[in-house]
Amino acid sequence: MHDERQRLARELHDSVAQTLFGITLHASRVLTLLERSEVEQVRAIVSDMLRLANDSQTELRAVVHDLRSDGSHQLQPGLTGALAILATGLEAAGGCQVRLSLQDEPDIAPSTKATLARIAREALNNVAKHAHARRVDLALEVGPSHVTLVVADDGRGFDPYASHPGHFGLQLMCEQAMAVGAALELVSAPGGGTQVRVRVGRRR
């Protein structure tokens, strides 16, 4: 738990630093445009600044929430219950349809359940903020030896190999998966939606 908190604290620091750097660049550009009386471009840049700040606030709230919690709140209804709650929240906030496919509660460690719930939350946050999706599939597959979490949307997708300044969710999900020995696979392409798959071994 100490290592997890240290990692989250580091992520919080990095996200704040990069966000402030981006806002500083935008603000400098605005000052230059105002000095030149080029007001027309200012509106678009200020809108970008507000979007960056709002997105970062959402990401920071999630990290701070994890720092203040041991994740047990997510396990009170079980992993399947937590995923159902996340799906309901996305439908209420984002206006897109979520199709749930949940099997029996898996026999994996509580810390692994909490990590899968956090990864699902981050993936669904990304859908709400960036995907412009109409439908999301959220599935928990329990096989003989592995448990697989799947979050797939029909949104606009993106190039996973390109740089995405100001967005830290992908790196965070990968680190969280590695911490519990899970394998995370992300498949996406512009116009082709996004799928996140996390596969972790069951207890034996």
List keywords for this structure.
5-stranded mixed beta sheet, 5 strands, 18% strand, 204 residues
Notes on the protein architecture:
The chain is of the alpha+beta class and 204 residues long. Helices cover 57% and strands 18% of the residues. The chain contains six helices and five strands. Strands 1-2-3-5-4 form a five-stranded mixed beta sheet, covered by helices on one side. Helix 1 runs antiparallel to helix 2, helix 4 runs parallel beside helix 5 and helix 5 runs antiparallel to helix 6. The longest helix is centred in the N-terminal third of the chain and has 34 residues. The chain is elongated and about 65 Å long. The chain starts with a helix and ends with a strand. The mean pLDDT is 80.
Radius of gyration, Cα only, in angstroms?
19 Å
What's the helix count?
Answer: 6
Shape: elongated
Decide which structural class fits the backbone: alpha+beta
Low-confidence stretches: none
Main pleated-sheet profile: 5 strands, mixed
Helix percent band: 55-70%
Helix-strand topology string: HHHHEHEEHEE
Tell me, rounded to a whole number, the average pLDDT: 80
